[in-house]
Design brief:
Number of strands: 13
CATH architecture of one domain: 2-Layer Sandwich
Bound molecules: iron/sulfur cluster
Low-confidence stretches: 1-8
Length: 416
């Protein structure tokens, strides 16, 4: 799953810990999640078709001897499923899936939950505080509704799912005289160990048009470098994922800042461009963290999140290796030019309320239940103990399914 101290990968300058849960324990929930989301190339679901961009990636990967190259395990319908259409390969997916072929809780699970009559969705509301009673158990969430009015919802249990920036922010500014460091933060770990994945674009330019924008944007992956092989000069691994950007976004976020003829010649050749993106495991560092900004406030007068990140040398070595391999792939099939794009600061936000066996090292136990407060749960990517190299949604969903069962059990037994 990820680097683990018990396997002897204790790396200086990191705050690596072991997960308190094994893959075997989580596997059943991964399988449920894959079936629920209709993940491609699992359970007999066909893969998405190969786009031109993927065919270029595939040809380069095979030249280098890579074996694990395919159109990905994606929660995008390759055939009609669950009342939603199949992917029409129109592209520009980063604008949002136009026909709902891509799974999203917004139009799958939430409407279904509403239909049961057991979900009361308070739209356009923002939680501003979690409150607790004398015993320390949380008992209410205070929020601003769509009109900015303060409301208070009593609660027997609270699950926070704001992900790795907003979840620690809410816990931190819910501090009280009983919990002066913020809720669930006796360890001081809330907001720490922020992980975001190693990123970076690599673009290859060819003699002939590629039309990289046609087809599902991310339907392609090379997984051979996913392994932990320290001989490469770094720990952990990475995936090489298919990517393209629409033309207005491409010069804005996909290219190093530039000007003049050389820069515009890249944009002029957009039609002939193929692209890949690095998704690599970054290592947790205690000082890579979310804190409350001492100056800037949001519309409700609450401190915004302040994010501090320093690359670990391992992160830099991994990125360099990935950029070199992607460049080699394109060069091997005759690219005229390779352009290394910038490295966006984050793709996936994770690990800022991580699960740990020892309460000293993290914020929650293996169920996402906070070590300090029995009826306070974290139900998002904050609970990942390490980032791994895969996109985290499936793990988040699997952990949430497992957590939901646990909460039902604990409620029935009146433990919470
Ligand atoms: S190409 Fe992208 S936006 Fe279009 S249907 Fe497929 S997933 Fe959705």
């Amino acid at each position: 799953m990820a680097l683990q101290n018990r396997r002897g990968h204790d790396i200086a300058g990191t705050s690596l810990i072991d997960w308190p849960i094994t893959y075997k324990e989580l596997r059943t929930y991964y399988e449920i999640a894959e079936r629920r989301l209709g993940v491609t190339r699992r359970n007999g679901v066909p893969g998405l078709p190969a786009s031109n961009n993927f065919k270029v990636m595939y040809a380069g990967a095979k030249k280098l001897g890579y074996q694990q190259v395919h159109t990905g395990h994606l929660a995008i319908n390759s055939r009609a499923f669950d009342g939603r259409s199949f992917c029409i390969q129109q592209g520009f997916c980063v604008q949002g899936c136009k026909i709902g072929a891509k799974w999203s809780a917004l139009y799958t699970e939430i409407p279904r939950a509403e239909a049961t009559g057991n979900l009361d969705l308070r739209v356009e509301s923002t939680a501003i505080r979690i409150e607790h009673g004398d015993t320390g158990r949380v008992n209410a969430v205070v929020y601003r509704d769509g009109q900015g009015r303060e409301q208070r919802q009593k609660a027997r249990a609270v699950c926070v799912a704001g992900n790795a920036i907003e979840t620690p922010r809410l816990l931190l500014f819910s501090s009280s005289s009983k919990f002066p460091q913020g809720l669930a933060n006796s360890s001081g770990q809330v907001g720490r160990n922020y992980c975001h994945h190693i990123t970076g674009f690599v673009w290859g330019f060819f003699e002939q048009p590629v039309y990289s924008w046609r087809g599902a944007t991310i339907a392609g992956v090379v997984e051979d470098e996913l392994i932990n092989e320290p001989k490469r000069g770094f720990a952990g691994g990475y995936r090489m994922e298919l990517v393209t950007l629409d033309l207005p976004t491409f010069p804005l976020v996909g290219l190093p800042y530039g000007w003049g003829r050389d820069f515009t010649s890249i944009v002029e050749n957009y039609r002939n461009m193929a692209g890949m993106f690095i998704n690599g495991e970054d290592l947790p560092r205690s000082d890579n963290r979310i804190t409350l900004d001492p100056v800037v406030k949001d519309a409700f007068g609450l401190p915004v999140a302040h994010i501090h990140v320093d690359d670990h040398p391992n992160d830099q070595a991994l990125r360099k290796h990935a950029q070199a391999q992607m460049s080699r792939m394109y060069e091997a099939i005759g690219a005229k030019r390779i352009v290394l794009g910038p490295t966006p600061p984050a793709t996936h936000n994770m690990c800022t309320a991580r699960m740990s066996a020892n309460p000293r090292d993290g914020v929650t136990n293996a169920w996402g239940q906070t070590h300090d407060i029995k009826n306070l749960f974290i139900s998002d990517g904050s609970v990942l103990s390490t980032a791994g190299a895969a996109n985290p949604t499936l793990t988040i969903v699997a952990l949430a399914l497992r957590q939901a069962e646990y909460i039902v059990r604990e409620m029935k037994e009146h433990n919470i």
